[in-house]
Design goal:
By secondary structure, this protein is an alpha+beta fold. It has one domain: 3-Layer(aba) Sandwich (Cytidine Deaminase, domain 2). Strands 2-1-3-4-5 form a five-stranded mixed sheet. It is globular, with a radius of gyration of 14 Å. The N and C termini lie far apart (38 Å).
């Protein structure tokens, strides 16, 4: 499963649009229904309009009608582990289970595995009243 997630994320990374930072990121998700979704980073000169790879993959998953991430992998291209930004951590939290695994990977295929609570302790959550 790790190898398949990594291969898909690497393809997405190659398709990233990063003319400003030159830092390409790819992400892949294994959903609770065992489907794969990928995303790549997409930069914009108006930096607030940049789309992270994780957000791109989550958007693809949600667009397909799914709502839960079993595993997500994020890969960058240098020798540093590629961690989700704060905003993406919150997005991952929204669609994760407590047992969701988050792989952070570098360009050398070295990785560490985290839970969302490790990456985002005391996350903002909201439970609507029905």
């Amino acid at each position: 499963m790790f190898e398949k997630l990594l291969a898909k994320a690497k393809i997405a990374r190659k398709n990233a649009y990063s003319p400003f930072s030159k830092f390409q990121v790819g992400a892949s998700i294994l959903s609770s229904n065992n489907n794969y979704y990928v995303g790549s980073s997409i930069e914009n000169p108006s930096f607030s309009q940049t789309l992270c790879a994780e957000a791109s993959a989550i958007a693809a998953m949600v667009t397909a009608g799914e709502r839960k991430i079993k595993t997500i992998l994020v890969v960058g291209g240098d020798d540093n582990l590629c961690f989700p930004c704060g905003g993406c951590r919150q997005k991952i939290k929204e669609f994760s289970y407590d047992e969701t695994k988050i792989y952070v990977v570098n360009g050398l295929d070295q990785y560490k595995i985290f839970s969302i609570d490790e990456l985002l302790p005391n996350a903002f959550t909201f439970s609507p009243k029905n």
